[in-house]
Write a structure and sequence with these properties.
Radius of gyration: 17 Å
Organism: Eruca vesicaria subsp. sativa (Garden rocket)
Helix content: 40-55%
Enzyme class: transferase
GO biological process, one term: toxin catabolic process
Catalytic activity: RX + glutathione = an S-substituted glutathione + a halide anion + H(+)
Bound molecules: glutathione
Shape: globular
Order of helices and strands: EHEHEEHHHHHHH
Number of helices: 9
Oligomer: single chain
GO molecular function, one term: glutathione transferase activity
Distance between the termini: 38 Å
Length: 224
C-alpha cells in the first residue's frame, strides 16, 4: 500500500539533513510505508538548525521535524510512532509482546544510549574542551558499549532482521545508527555478528537504498 500526497490532502514535510541518523530512521519509515513527502534540508554544519524560523518549528534545534498540517512532531521516535498509527501498513511493531518489547528496547538504546553521545553538538563541545583524541575515544566508547548491549539483546532472535524475518522499528533504528557510524566515524559492526548479519540483509532492500544519506537531495554530488 502507498500513501500519496493526493489522498493525504497535503504532503507531509520532513525537515532533515542528509547525514542525520535520526532523519535516516524517519525516511526509512516513510519509504517502507510508501508515504510521499516533501524533503526540506536543514544544513547542520552551517548551523541552520539554529535559524529563528527553524527554532519556531523545533525549539530543541535538532532534526528531524515532521509537519503534517497543523501537527508538528520533533523527535524521530515520536514521528515514527505517529506515522505507524496514522499509516498502519506495514506495521512497525510485531504483535508478539516480547518481540514488541525488544523493538522498543533497541530503539531506546540507539536513541538515548548511543546517538546523544555522538551528536554533533556534544562531540564539538568535547573537542573544544579537550582535544580531537578525547573526542574520538568518547565516540568509540559510546558506540561500542551500545553495540555490545544490542548484540546481547538480539543474539537469540533468529531471522534475517533484528527480531525475525520482518522489518520492524528496531531495524529502522539499527540501519541509521550502523550506517552513520560507519560513514562518519569509521566504526564497523563486524565485531558484532548479529548486528552485522542484520546490516547485510538491509542492504538487499530497495526501500533501504532509497533512504541512504548519499541519495538525499542535500547530499553533495559524488566526487569523480
Ligand atoms: N531525540 C532526537 C534527537 C535529534 C538529534 O539529536 N538530531 C541531530 C542529528 S541526528 C541534530 O539535529 N543535531 C544538531 C546539533 O547537534 O546541533 C530525535 O531522535 O529526533
Amino acid at each position: 500500500m502507498a500513501y500519496t500526497g493526493e489522498e493525504m490532502k497535503e504532503k507531509l514535510k520532513l525537515y532533515s539533513y542528509w547525514r542525520s541518523s535520526c532523519g535516516h530512521r524517519v525516511r526509512l519509515a516513510l519509504s517502507l510505508k510508501g508515504i510521499e513527502y516533501e524533503y526540506i534540508p536543514v544544513n547542520l554544519l552551517k548551523g541552520e538548525q539554529f535559524d529563528p524560523d527553524f527554532i519556531k518549528i523545533n525549539p530543541m534545534g535538532t532534526v528531524p521535524a515532521l509537519v503534517d498540517g497543523e501537527v508538528v512532531i520533533t523527535d524521530s521516535f515520536a514521528i515514527i510512532m505517529y506515522l505507524d498509527e496514522k499509516y498502519p501498513e506495514p506495521p512497525l511493531l510485531p504483535r508478539d509482546l516480547h518481540k514488541r518489547a525488544l523493538n522498543y528496547q533497541v530503539a531506546s538504546i540507539v536513541s538515548s544510549g548511543i546517538q546523544p553521545h555522538q551528536n554533533l553538538a556534544v562531540i564539538r563541545y568535547i573537542e573544544e574542551k579537550t582535544n580531537g583524541e578525547e573526542k574520538i575515544a568518547w565516540i568509540n566508547n559510546a558506540i561500542r558499549k551500545g553495540y555490545t548491549a544490542l548484540e546481547k539483546l538480539l543474539v537469540n532472535c533468529g531471522g534475517k532482521y533484528a527480531t525475525g524475518d520482518e522489518i520492524y522499528l528496531a531495524d529502522l533504528f539499527l540501519v541509521g545508527q550502523i550506517h552513520g557510524a560507519m560513514i562518519k566515524f569509521k566504526i564497523d559492526v563486524e565485531p558484532y555478528p548479529t548486528l552485522a548479519k542484520c546490516y547485510e540483509s538491509y542492504k538487499e532492500l530497495s526501500v533501504f537504498d532509497d533512504a541512504v544519506p548519499a541519495k538525499q537531495p542535500d547530499a553533495p554530488a559524488p566526487s569523480i
